[in-house]
Amino acid sequence: MVSVLENESCQAVFEKMQKYGISQIPVSSENGDFIGSVEENVLYRKLMSQGCSLESSVKEVMSEPYPIVGFAESIENISKRINEKNSACLVMDMGGNWHIITKQDIIQAISMDA
């Protein structure tokens, strides 16, 4: 999973978003805790309103962290956590690797069941 550190620049976030074709990214502290998130639409809005610059640190523009869900949680329970406030959830797999679950992932999972 792609993430950024709280002290990285908005430029670094933008570059990672472009490189990996993503629009949202979790923010972690130096000790690895997830402490926030940055979404493309929020970053854009803050850049356009001069609320920040590309040199600003991530902690100046980050939003709340994404909720963490359990590996065995059902699609129904996870989908309830993804809403206007949270566009994604984080989950750790059985191997200890973190993953992000987005609206697109939920739609894909539902369509595979159909």
Brief overview:
With 114 residues, this protein is α/β, with parallel strands linked by helices. It is globular and about 45 Å long.
Write the SSE topology.
Elements: E1 4-5, H1 10-20, E2 24-28, E3 34-39, H2 40-48, H3 58-61, E4 68-69, H4 75-81, E5 88-92, E6 98-102, H5 103-113
Parallel strand pairs: 1-2, 4-5
Antiparallel strand pairs: 2-3, 5-6
In round numbers, the mean pLDDT is: 92
**Count of all domains:** 2
Using the 3D structure, state the CATH architecture of the largest domain.
Roll
Strand content: 15-25%
Share of helical residues: 25-40%
Strands of the widest sheet, in order across it, are: 1-2-3
CATH top level of the largest domain is Alpha Beta
By CATH, the superfamily of the largest domain comes out as CBS-domain
Radius of gyration: 15 Å
Major β-sheet profile: 3 strands, mixed
Question: Shape from CA axes?
Answer: globular
Q: Can you describe what's shown?
A:
The protein is α/β, with parallel strands linked by helices and 114 residues long. It is globular, with a radius of gyration of 15 Å. The mean pLDDT is 92. The two termini are 28 Å apart. The protein has a three-stranded mixed β-sheet. It contains five helices and six strands. It folds into two domains: 1-65, Roll (CBS-domain); 67-114, CBS-domain. Helices cover 37% and strands 22% of the residues.
